[in-house]
Write a structure and sequence with these properties.
- By secondary structure, the protein is an all-alpha fold.
- The protein is 53% helix and 1% strand.
- It has a domain at 6-104.
- It contains 16 helices and two strands.
- It has a two-stranded antiparallel ribbon.
- The longest helix is centred in the C-terminal third of the chain and has 26 residues, at 277-302.
- The model is unreliable at 11-16 and 296-336 (pLDDT under 50).
Amino acid sequence: MEKKNASVVQLFIERFPSVLNGGNILEHACVHGTAEIVEDILKAGVHQNIGEAGGLFCKVKNREDTLDVAIKLYDEEDDERCHILTTCLKYANAAKLDIQIPNADYPAILTAVGLVPQHILKSLIKIYAHEIAMICQVGEHALLKAIHISVGDNKNDELPSIFRSTVLMKACRDKNREIVLQLLKKFAHKPCEEVDFLKMHDKKNALDVALVLFDENDDASCEILKVCIHYANAAILGKKFPPSNYPTIVAAVGLVSDQVIARLSKKYCHELINIDQIGIFAVKKVIQIGREQAMYANYLDMRCQYPLHTKPMRLKLNTNLVPILSEGNLIALDCD
C-alpha cells in the first residue's frame, strides 16, 4: 500500500474479496494510500455490498469509521489528503441519496455539506468554488439553504412575531393574499413589542393556519401558504424580505413536512424550469439535509430529549464551530 500501486491493490481485491470485510483495508488506504486506491476499494465495496457506501461507515477502531479517519487526516495543503477526503465524501453522499455509484459531475462542496465540520467545509468551498462558479440562481439559493441547515445556525429559527398575530391569521383564513402580504412586508422584521397592537396569540401561528387550509387544487390557499413560507424562510436566513426568484420548494425545507413539500413541488414546479444540473443536485441536497434534521428531531422527541434542534456531530469532531463564510464571500456568483 505504501508503494501506492493502484493496479496491485485492484488485483489483490479481485483475488481476495474477503479483505474488504471490516473496513480495515479502506482505513489503511486512507492513511497510507492515494485517492485512486481509495476509490478502487470503495467501488469494489459497493459492488460486493460491504455495508453502506462500500464499507465507508464500518467501524474500524475506537468506534471510528473510515470517513472519520479521512476527515481527521484532511489537510488543504496536501493535495492527496484533499482528494482522499473528497473521494470518501462522494460515496458517503451518494449513500445518503440512495445512489450506489456517485455522479461524476457532482460538486465536491455539495457532497461535503452535512458531512464535515464547518472549518473543513469552509476550506473545501475555497478549493472547489470553481465547480459551482456558474451555478444558476435557484441552485445558489438551495446550496446556501443546505449549508445554513447543516451548520445548525438556528439563531433566527423562530418565526417572526407577526406570525402570532390574530389579524394575520384571520387574513389567512379569509384567503386574502393582499392583506397577508401587506402585513408580512410591514411587520415580518419587527420585534414583538411593535406588533403587539395586532393582538398576539400564545400558541397558534399563521403558518400553521395556512397549512391547515392548504389545498393544491385551490389557488388562493396555495398562494397564502407560499407567502407565509417565503417570509418565514427569509427570517430564518436573517433577511427582511424573501430573496428574488427563491423557489418555494427550497424555502419550504425545514418549515413543513415532506408530504407538503411534495404537494408544493407539483404546484410550483415551474419555478425550477430553467434550473441547471448542479442546481438540481443542490435542490435534492437541501431536501435530504432537511429530512435528516426532521428525522433526528422526531427521534429526540420520542425519547423526550430536548432541544429538538440539537443534532449529532461526527465522532470525535466536536469543536467550537466558527462562522461560515458570509453569503457574499461564499461563492462569487452573478447569475443575472
